[in-house]
Specification:
Layout: E1 12-17, E2 21-26, E3 31-35, H1 40-44, H2 47-51, E4 54-56, E5 61-64, E6 69-72, H3 73-78
Antiparallel strand pairs: 1-2, 2-3, 4-5, 5-6
Amino acid sequence: MNISKVEMHPFAMGVGFTDTELIVTLVDGRTISVPLAWFDTLSKATSTQREDFEILGDGEGIHWPQLDEDLSVKGLLIGAHV
């Protein structure tokens, strides 16, 4: 069995949404899914505003310019929310 190495410093490579969740795909193959309700700005945003995001640096974070919202991948993994 070949077990791939889990990244010690997780990086995002994609972002998506359902009606109730923020979904972040990591470069090591994992997917993070968190309740959209954790993030007031994102939960109240239009789908067009949510889809306008930038992956920061090597994937350490995500920025939504229209919303002035930033989230770190590390924060999502540890369950940090506002």
